[in-house]
Amino acid sequence: MLNRGDFNSYIYIPVKNNEHVRKRSQVCFELLQKLVEKQLVISKDKEKATNPYNHERDELNAGEASKHVFYQLDELNKCRKKPKGESTKKEFKNHIHITIADTVQIKKHMITSFVTKIREELQTQSCFHLFFKNSVDLYRSQKHTKYFCAYSVTPDQQETHLDSLLKKIDKVLDTFGLTNQYTNRICHLSLAYTDINLGPLLEESQLNVGDTFWSDIEKIVEDNNLSSSSSSTTESDEFCIYVNRICIRVGNTVYESRFRNLHDDLNILQSDESGDSSTE
């Protein structure tokens, strides 16, 4: 029987917010806005078919679509309103990250032993470079309420670095009677999201709407109006991070487990050092 607790907990690799990530965020945002524009056209066409006497203007502008597209980095959203139902209170600062283990519930008395066990299991884990695909993929949330544009970890990198890390985490979760629902999923970095249902667009593009992941989603955007900075970024720059730790969030507290550091002097995008963390 699974442990049912008072605190939600999940495990992730934090990613540092810098200019490189912001440029990639812009690529995802612009692509997702194009997808939403196409979806709004489909919705409007269906509405006109059922109500031919609707004389609302035919043209959909980018401003309408942009009301439903958001950066994962809150600071890039500026004065943009969050989707209905999302809290606007100043709560725990949720940095961009790569999820390693999905949400599980643990009891208060388990926290210290849980975090300690993870640190023990990862005490020989070395830092590593993690590379992403250059193309953008589309993901759907587990609750089917959001769609995310993201960069997925390349298959060889997933196998070389993350599969072994996931096995170690799963071993600890199993010890506490917990299950990682994230097992066998593709690890990715989400950078933009929308609250618009893209199902009809995916169906029209002859993609399986029952999936939760669609590779190289830019293929269904027929025009090439994405900014030149977007296309040049995806084609010419390798996207990677230097992973030097994982974080274990329990409630609103974050504990970290640092890896053996082999490359202190490398000038490369690292796991986020700026996030709130606490150690025992």
TrEMBL record:
<dbReference type="GO" id="GO:0034477">
    <property type="term" value="P:U6 snRNA 3'-end processing"/>
</dbReference>
<dbReference type="GO" id="GO:0000175">
    <property type="term" value="F:3'-5'-RNA exonuclease activity"/>
</dbReference>
<dbReference type="Pfam" id="PF09749">
    <property type="entry name" value="HVSL"/>
</dbReference>
<dbReference type="GO" id="GO:0005634">
    <property type="term" value="C:nucleus"/>
</dbReference>
<keyword id="KW-0539">Nucleus</keyword>
<keyword id="KW-0456">Lyase</keyword>
<keyword id="KW-0378">Hydrolase</keyword>
<protein>
    <recommendedName>
        <fullName>U6 snRNA phosphodiesterase 1</fullName>
    </recommendedName>
</protein>
<keyword id="KW-0540">Nuclease</keyword>
<dbReference type="GO" id="GO:0016829">
    <property type="term" value="F:lyase activity"/>
</dbReference>
<dbReference type="InterPro" id="IPR027521">
    <property type="entry name" value="Usb1"/>
</dbReference>
